[in-house]
Predict the 3D structure of the following.
Amino acid sequence: MPVIGLGRGRRGSKEPVCRRQKESALHYFKDLPQTKPSLEEIAANAALVLLNSHYSMDNPSAYLPNIIEVGGLHIKETNETLPVDLPKVLDNAKNGVVFLSFGSNVQLSELDKDKLDAFLKVFGELKQTVLMKWEDAPIQNIPKNIVLRKWFPQKAVLVDVTPRVFEMMDYSFESYQMILYRSGFMVNELVFESLDVQMFLKQNHKIDLVVTEIFFNEGLYMFAHKYQAPLVLVTTVGNSFKGNYYMRNPLQLSTLFHEYGRAKEPLSFLGRLYNFYICFYDLLMLKFWYFPRQQESALHYFKDLPQPVPSLEEIQSNAALVLLNSHYSLDNPSAYLPNIIEVGGLHIKESNETLPKDLQNILDNAKDGVIFLSFGSNVQIRELDKDKLDAFLKVFGELKQTVLMKWEDSPMQNLPKNVILRKWFQQKAVLGHPNVKLFIGHGGLLGLQETISAGVPILGVPVFGDQFLNIIGTVQNGHGEILYYKEINEHVLRDKINKMLTDRRYIETARKVAMRFKDRPMKAMDTAVWWTEFVLRHKGADFMKPPKMSYIAYQNFDVYLVLISVLGGIDVQPKVFDMIDYSFESFQTITAKSGFLVNEHVFESEDVQNFLKQDHKIDLVITEIFFNEGLYMFAHKYQAPLVLVTTVGNSFKGNYYMRNPLQLSTLFHEYGRASEPLSFLGRFYNMYLCTFDLLMLKFWYFPRQQESALRYFKDLPQPVPNLEDIAANAALLLLNSHFSIDNPSAYLPNIIEVGGLHIKDTNDTLPADLQNVLDNAKNGVVFLSFGSNVQLSELDKDKLDAFLKVFGELKQTVLMKWEDVPIQNIPKNIVLRKWFPQKAVLAHHNVKLFIGHGGLLGLQETISAGVPILGVPVFGDQYLNILDTVRKGHGEILYYKEINENTLRTKINKMLKDRTYMETAKKIAARFKDRPMNPLDTAVWWTEYVIRHKGADFMKPPKISYIAYQMLDVYLFLLGVVAVIIYVILKVITLIINVFGSKNVTKKQKKT
């Protein structure tokens, strides 16, 4: 029993946690099924993570909304007490402490004499105090700086001898990351070994939801698998590489900076290359070192797990929700999957804390304002080097402002009169006082968010973790400055403080950022609660997660190896059902040319011509995105924000225009017809369609639209951007899509899902006769309508006859939208009308089946009503829409050419008799309508938001080239480096072969 043999004493070894992590949990599980999943697989399936971490001491990471930080959970339960005399030894060790212990299984007394002598000799030369675990009789004549004990409370000692916080600034990324990884092992062990957790695991519980912090607490994900409960992860840190990778969010490495990065210009090529390196390093460490060890550790404590046991990585990637302590108003805007919810500022209450009377008086009477200096609870100012502390006090003494300074040590002598020391301040309340003009801190995210919310500028002195990234962000936004620790002196400090106190732009920008940080449709706490309850209502809400496919396939890496582009066209406007046979290229050309016609028709109308000749002040320009690009020029003419609206769903075109990450493994081109779009061939076909579309848009369609628009717009503000740039700079895209019915995609904050915008809460009124027909249809109703653009009168005769024959055999009443003259001798159960109030008909409880072409608006009405659909797609996105209903289980597809009596009869009878179609439709309807705001209110709120914030540029990605934004320059550079290395290796091998080959030839020649 090697694991049982590990006691507390083992923690004195060089890598105590790693030793225990390496013990295989499977050693203790008997009679397991043959397929034994890894803990990494369990993690990928997590619904919620209670992560025993905290941004104030760890490197802040970006997490999805189902990752919750509960850092310090273990401290109360597992703290060890130091013996009375030992704290004095540690406290008096001015030069620090070296701690030597080989644990309980390896005793120092067994060391060879020469090795022991070497330790003692070297220790005696050190300035540091040395604690040495020695199990034998005392050693004679040992150096004075060595303290021998048979036992030390190792955890308590290690906590006490952590390095000075300001020394951590010199740590390399790799070293700092390793410290955090090992702390993750320790944190998990401390939690699992606590008595309360051990007792909890032995009892039977029914758990509805598991909530945990994400930060290096991955072992705790196993609770979600053990209790088969959704996993919600919460993080107090911002958006991070780790969280994005775990949750399979698109890796936007041009703007997603690793939380421990320190690049001063992160958007530059070198900054992005450095970011790629540290993210790649982190990925390798996580996947091949950290997760396997966390998996082993967790399996040591969890017994009788449901089989098969997934890996921790799988549990995490399958988390139901991540509540992310971030917000686009102050961070780089990123695209998030629907189960990643931004709740930045969750900890900030609206009600101010009450200030003590004396402190309230100080703040109220500070006529020249107040400067507040605090490095939080984990970084203590008393640890400042003396020259740095003296510089602060000297500069503070020269100021007119009152200075509040958090000081944890005994009072200082000869303190400047304007400096007030306290061991603790109510930080949020102090920052909220109107007299506070400047905050000086280390840039920890929670304190920074409090500063931002109060509208106070910040002078940041970052020390470790994400503090560098956070403060650099305030510098870029214009409400902060950075002061590197090593640069602190009187001159630099004086210049920075005076600059920020005298330049009003800092306070003005801080207040502007505060306003947009707090301007949300719901408070952060309400948002977190609503989405957590949403996950409970929908049993983990799997529909919000990306498809379960390999990471290589999900990132489309296998398809990116090949690019194909083909161009084609057609000029004839066809009959609607003839378009079924059209190739993608032909149909795309038709729709593009219709775009030219639509724009010209609009521009040439008398009303538009008169409008353009008049002077107007426009606050906002709203237009449909679908082949109306020429109309975007209105936004430039009137220098107004542009809001794009689309009645189609999530499309390649909209994503490309808005510079949203192209998730081509799940973002299917709207005109695609692949029956298995997630397969390699399906994704390859999708890649081709998108590439064709991109080339056609960029090199043919946009230039022609530009020429057309410029003919009608005169006296435009200079310089005139191209239409593609105007689209990319749109303030908002209102997208007629919703994750509950579509493939979940990650969106930038200025892309808002408003699927079902056209569906009113109040039903349309049915005519009295039609109400009677529906009410009296005892066997239910089948409703057939192909909308307004596809008329049934254009059906081939054999197809129409098949519909009428099969309908006549049904017990159900059939409502049939028929635009032509009445049909003679139709079956009695068929009711023909040229028009039906479709939403009202679908909402009637007797409707059992809808038959339509799958246009998105009609399909959303059908979904909202909870009615199954038999789709007969004709063109455009109708194939994609209907195929999606088939995959989700509330629809079937009937290809036009396959319509005959047999296929129609089989499909209709199957859908009427099998209740799973109706049950699935009702379930999807419930989740489609379950939203914090209805679609119309959502659209109105965000439109007004854009007006309030003058276009809300902070929601858009940075204005860098598309090549840089997509990281193509970095990838090409790395590819070139790899190619050069391979070329050099091959050359060296060739040279070696030639040299040895020539020697062999020479030897043979000599022999002959």
Remarks:
- Residues 82-152 form one domain.
- The mean pLDDT is 80.
- The CA atoms of residues 442 and 832 lie 73 Å apart.
- The chain has six domains: 8-77+169-342, 82-152, 357-517, 565-719, 768-929, 967-1008.
